[in-house]
Specification:
heterodimer, A: alpha/beta, Rossmann fold, 6-stranded mixed beta sheet, 4-stranded antiparallel beta sheet, 10 helices, 10 strands, B: mainly alpha, MetI-like fold, 11 helices, 74% helix, 0% strand
Amino acid sequence: MEATQIRIQDLNVWYGSQHILRNINAAIPARGITAIIGPSGCGKTTLLRSINRLLEETEGMRVSGQVLLGGVDIYRPGADVTAVRTRIGLLAPKPFPLPMSIYENVAYGPRIHGWHSGHLYEIVQRNLEAAGLWDEVKDRLRTPASRLSTGQQQRLCLARALAVEPQVLLCDEPTSALDPISAQGVESQLQRLKQDHTVVVVTHILRQARRLADNVMFMWLGELVEEGTAVQLFTSPNDPRTKAYLAGSIG
Amino acid sequence: MKQHRRRRLEERFFLVLMVFSTVTVLGSLFLILYTIIRRGMPALSVDMLTKVPKGGYYLGKEGGILNAIVGSLYLAGGGTLIALVLSLPIALYLHSHARHSRVVHVTRLALDVLWGVPSIVYGAFGFIILLALGMRASLLGGIIALALLELPIMTRGMDEAIAMIPDALKEASYALGATHLETAVKVILRQSAPALLTAVLLAFGRGIGDAASVLFTAGYTDRLPDSLLSPAASLPLAIFFQLGTPFPAVQQRAYASALVLTVIVLALSIAARYFAKRLTRNVVK
């Protein structure tokens, strides 16, 4: 077993008076793809957004517990939230390019963090290549990103996320807005990225989880029911709810 | 069957109502333009646009309204600039920091109340401030009064524009480690730029057309304003004074002045549309 990259301890989340995540304890290994599966509304996305502290941008969200990244709690008082989000990238379900050119979208992160100067172009090229988009856009880097197709936009968002060199990449149903061909493209990029990144994918498509995941977490009604390696969880789940969900009789 | 007929009648009734309302609006616009063009055109001349009133102008003798044209552009331009400097931070604050807090709620309410305050009240209020500062009616006084008048219009316009931005777009920026300020300046402003421009234009149009707020604060003069502290003329007041004379020739000049004012606002609207379109280039959906 690989070393643990992210450890979640006694995580509870409330939205107003609604208790939406209950006592989550989990360990996400370094590198590889961890899939969070479960039916809609079970708290998958909430759990994902707690890992880069994006939850707190929604008014009324309350978080308790710890999320340790490399042993350090990202919720500790005085933690720099922008530094947390730089180390933990996010790919949203629907691609939202920033209102600027293709080039500027990828350069955005490096620019705000003050890296760059001379070799910004190289950074942009390297990350567009890593996202598998370079060949399609290299001749029109200055066109607005909104002109790209949805599938291309999602790969642009991936390149943009990679440009700040995160250790962890959180993907929230990253292919749900895409056609099957584009979805396949994004999936194969994730397969490549898992060599040197910790990738966490939220999905409600079981087939996708089976294709991608090295590790799986199954959630049900705000609780983490079971976690384990993909082989173990898919072939011999321990909890009856996991069994029922995988068999298709619930969710 | 009866039910069916009733519903069809309803449908027809509301269609007629909608068409009638639309025609009323377009009709009024057309009538206003028709009136000021028909009555103002004959009095419009090069002199009218390039000269200040000479002695006896208000009796029908020589001169023009350059004092009012320049005065109005200075007043509304200055007022809009100050309002812009104040509005933008307020509008961004309403969205980036405490979105549902009490402060935000109270600020919006205050802006809506200010929007409803009649412009003569801004004029009277500005006048009292001028007196308290030991100043006279001046270009600066008028600019401040117009800035106050325009502020709520511009801020609420910007507020609505920024409210249209999807949360997911802001989150895309936060997720890259951007701060709220960086996101506001680099993402929110770019995304809402066309709508922000519209808000500015709306406020400018309201400012340049307002007579009551500049009556006491900017005063009126036949000369061009030569400093911020000297009085300044304005087109709405030029219209008012000329229309108030008993001479048909001068009254005609009032319509010509109205035409000039309308053309200025129209030209700016068209220019703003052009720029807004260019700004839309990068906007996401």
